[in-house]
Automatic annotation (TrEMBL):
Pfam families: YfiO. This is Outer membrane protein assembly factor BamD. The lineage of its organism: Eukaryota, Metazoa, Ecdysozoa, Arthropoda, Chelicerata. It comes from Nephila pilipes. SUPFAM superfamilies: TPR-like (SSF48452). Keywords: Cell outer membrane, Membrane, Signal. Residues 25-218 form the Outer membrane lipoprotein BamD-like domain. Residues 1-21 form the signal peptide. InterPro entries: BamD, BamD-like, TPR-like_helical_dom_sf. It comes from the Eukaryota.
Length: 235
């Protein structure tokens, strides 16, 4: 049994070595074209291995840069959004002047966006995605993807607002006013949210309940100013 295992191990090592020896006889372009063919055939797992091989054999080369991008796209198409985001992070770090940066940043936003509803990740992913979406809008205002990113940013804002508002109300009902205040304060910067005015009203109530009348008055003034602003006729 032991001899059989040794024989199998040696066979695998020899096969692996021979495979890399064969790859070394090919040009970067040939390896890349073979990997792209697998990608086009939607054989993403095989394509990812082929792209990684290019990165291993020819690190920091032009084709390694292209391989990193398509590796991320492959992960995304397979639904491996965390791996796709990691690939895009690596691309941005290693190829900071890469020709595909607008698309790479775009794919990174999408990769995080697709993970927002994973319960175990909590709200952190939503906040991170909104941060990345805002960064994208600032970096690439003329990009062909910017309108889509703006729409997704709005959806993320509503997602965050709905969650924070719901949790804030839960704490308020339980009389946990400080916890409720923390949640509703998170809403204060989202003036376009449908929950903004309600959250400010709850902040007034929560502060008043624990005797913080000055803070309550400040939020009353904020709400009044916002209502006056909304009441102004458009020019």
């Amino acid at each position: 049994m032991y001899k059989t295992l040794i024989t199998c191990f040696i066979f695998l090592i020899c096969s692996f070595t021979q495979s890399y020896a064969d790859d070394l006889e090919k040009t970067e372009t040939e390896l890349y074209e073979e990997a792209v063919e697998l990608f086009d055939q939607k054989k993403y797992k095989q394509a990812i291995r082929a792209f990684h091989k290019i990165e291993d054999l020819y690190p920091f080369s032009y084709w390694a840069m292209k391989a990193k991008l398509l590796s991320g796209v492959s992960h995304y198409n397979m639904g491996n959004y965390s791996s796709a985001a990691s690939d895009m992070d690596d691309y941005i770090y290693v190829y900071s002047n890469g020709e595909d940066l607008p698309y790479v940043y775009y794919l990174r936003v999408l990769s995080y966006y697709m993970q927002i509803n994973k319960v175990q990740l909590g709200q952190q992913t939503a906040y991170k995605t909104l941060e990345l979406a805002t960064e994208y809008i600032n970096l690439f205002p003329g990009s062909e993807y910017v309108d889509e990113i703006k729409k997704r940013a709005k959806l993320i804002t509503e997602h965050i607002s709905t969650k924070e508002y719901s949790i804030g109300k839960f704490y308020l009902r339980r009389g946990e006013y400080l916890a409720a205040i923390k949640r509703f304060q998170n809403m204060a910067s989202y003036k376009d949210s449908k929950y903004f005015s309600k959250s400010i009203n709850y902040l007034i109530a929560a502060h008043s309940a624990i005797g913080l009348d000055l803070e309550a008055e400040q939020y009353e003034s904020m709400l009044l100013a916002e209502n006056l602003q909304d009441a102004k006729p458009e020019a």
